[in-house]
Here is the input.
Amino acid sequence: YVPADIPTGYTITGWNKWGADTEDEAITFPYTIEDSPLRFYPKLEQGKTDINCDASKLAETIAGLSAGEYKIIVSGTMTSDILAAVKTAMIDNESAKINLDLSGTTGLTCIDEDAFKDCNNLTGITIPFGVTDINYYAFAWCGNLTNVTIPDSVTSIGDSSFWGCRNLKSI
Here is the structure.
């Protein structure tokens, strides 16, 4: 048995079997079927779901997420206009906790002023190499932001860029 729809925010972390002569128990593959009838079902765990996404579809992807934790690995050309749309999508969809990995993107040289301000569902971000400036209030009031990865290309971080990021643990 494989479910038609795995709930958003859940991943299959293993398989279990159940049958008339057995208790619910974990199995691994390859598995030889000795008992009959057996039912196999996925072991689901809620956790982070990794999503690969092109930069041009990032805002649309975020807008469509349901509650849960996500790591979005972004590729393609990133622009300030795309980041503005991403901010809107994140503010409109606060139930999805998001860690953005922008390290696979090109084209971005600056994180604009207020780029992620008030995005309380942003939990982490990896800024791409090539960005040289993080402007004022870029991540201000991102209350759930815990980690930021900044590349060596960044030479300027504006005042109060991380103002109000009370859960920030590593930069």
Observations:
- The chain is about 10% helix and 40% strand.
- The first helix runs from residue 58 to 63.
